[in-house]
TrEMBL record:
InterPro entries: ANL_N_sf (IPR042099), CapK_Type1_Caps_Biosynth (IPR053158), CHP02304_F390_synth-rel (IPR012685)
Coiled-coil positions: none
UniProt superkingdom: Bacteria
Signal sequence residues: none
Name of protein: Adenylate-forming enzyme
Organism listed in the record: Candidatus Enterococcus dunnyi
Length: 448
């Protein structure tokens, strides 16, 4: 690491440590500290971003409520004026698409790295990160994800599985930390063979890929010790968590990382906390439910492509009891899924919305012989389910139970009668370069 990068790295590392200390020992002081930091950040953004300068007067008092709520569509539409480096969307997309095509993710626009989101929410996003921001990200990630006491001075060897690499991730490579990128576009067998040769002590991958790894080492001997295994990118289902932990003999933690930033990570007790020393979170609670909310995110570090009041589409379920780790950072029971993957039955004001977690629960609690599943609402009257069962499973009995439990979720009797549920039993194979989604709703747009 160059001298130019050492200063922001150390500054961020110490800043994250200090705020974590405050969150445990002095929660009220942490909230005051965060509020002051937020106000300073907002003033800085208004002075740098043409988009926000056109919306907000540079008055002495700038409040978060002065800023409009943002989403991906608006962010892409206003991309040229929103970012603070004068980079056009056309220019950024050209660099990002070329990197994807050549699988060479090193090229930048000046000192700015460019990346593409996976596009699973319907429209692919473009993100910009400066050299300083990549260093800050790596400092926060190393501070929060790597407990050096576990490694006893050994080299930390990370196997990192991702659809696309980025200069952001490469900043982790320093000192005795070695990050090895595994391209999900490469054949799975090739990646697994290289993984066995590498013998990492940390694996970071999607639950779908972790299942493949767990299956592989269920047959092959796992002749190296895993210190940490992290799930990323996809919703971590309990059925997958149990399967992976059992076969890899290691507690599975979550890293909540998205295009919108480093949003959360599991503590040593296994509780997923939002990174409130990095992002300021507003909660938009859903319906009358007091624990489910959609996060509205303000990143307190990013200035190249400001993220102010960005409304995410993930449904988060808040933990109601304090975490034993003592942190006052928002603790989650789980990331439930996307808001647009709620199932919808009925019309207008009488429409019934069923959250993805209820769908999962109905299926997984139907039988212990269900290994994996996928459930898709194609229309308001049609649901398609695929089940992967153990060899000894009583197929017809399980199918009837799943149908009954799914129909029981629908309150209206006429809607229940009109509902057609098709269930197939098959092997659910990992789809290369695709995020695994177990609960999917295609009832969108005009259908709603």
């Amino acid at each position: 690491m160059t001298i130019k990068k050492i200063k922001p790295f150390i500054s961020t590392y110490l800043d994250v440590s200090y705020q974590r200390y405050l969150s445990i020992k002095h929660p009220e002081r942490f909230r005051q500290f965060q509020k002051k930091r937020l106000n300073r950040h907002l003033k800085r953004i208004v002075s740098k971003s043409p988009y926000y300068r056109s919306l907000i007067n540079e008055q002495e008092e700038i409040s978060l409520s002065d800023f409009p709520i943002m989403n991906k569509a608006v962010m892409m539409k206003e991309f040229d004026q929103l970012n603070t480096k004068g980079i056009s969307l056309l220019q950024a997309k050209k660099v990002a698409l070329q990197a994807e095509e050549n699988r060479d993710f090193a090229p930048k626009i000046g000192t700015v790295s460019v990346g593409l989101s996976s596009g699973t929410t319907g429209n692919q996003g473009v993100f910009l990160v400066s050299d300083e921001e990549t260093v800050q990200w790596s400092a926060a990630m190393m501070n929060k994800a790597l407990d050096r006491k576990k490694f006893h001075g050994q080299a930390i060897v990370i196997a990192f599985f991702m659809r696309a690499n980025n200069n952001l991730y490469e900043t982790i490579n320093q000192g005795n930390i070695q990050l090895h990128f595994f391209d999900l576009l490469h054949p799975v067998e090739e990646n697994l063979k290289q993984l066995k040769q590498l013998k990492p002590n940390v694996i970071v991958a999607q639950p779908s890929m972790l299942r493949m790894i767990a299956n592989f080492f269920d047959k092959e001997s796992l002749d190296f010790s895993l210190k940490e295994v992290f799930s990323i990118a996809e919703v971590l289902e309990e059925v997958d968590k149990e399967f992976i932990e059992q076969r890899l003999s290691c507690r599975l933690k979550e890293i909540y990382q998205a295009t919108e930033g480093f949003l959360g990570i599991s503590c040593h007790h296994g509780t997923l906390h939002l990174n409130e020393e990095i992002v300021y979170i507003e909660k938009e609670y859903l319906a009358d439910d007091s624990t489910r909310f959609v996060p509205i995110i303000t990143d307190l570090y990013r200035t190249t492509q400001p993220l102010i009041r960005y409304r995410h589409t993930d449904i988060l379920v808040e933990r109601v009891t304090p975490c034993p780790c003592g942190s006052s950072f928002i603790a989650l029971e789980k990331i439930e899924g996307r808001e647009d993957d709620c199932f919808i039955f009925g019309e207008g004001k009488e429409a019934q919305v069923i959250f993805p977690d209820f769908i999962r629960y109905a299926i997984t609690r139907s039988s212990e012989e269900i290994r994996q599943f996928k459930c898709i609402q194609q229309t308001r009257q049609i649901i398609e389910v695929t089940l992967e069962l153990s060899p000894q499973a009583l197929e017809s009995e399980i199918i009837q139970t799943v149908k009954a439990k799914l129909k029981a979720l629908v309150k209206d009797v006429d809607e229940q009668k009109a509902l057609t549920i098709t269930i197939n039993v098959a092997s659910l194979d990992y789809e290369q370069d695709q995020k695994m989604r177990r609960v999917i709703s295609n009832v969108k747009g005009g259908e709603r």
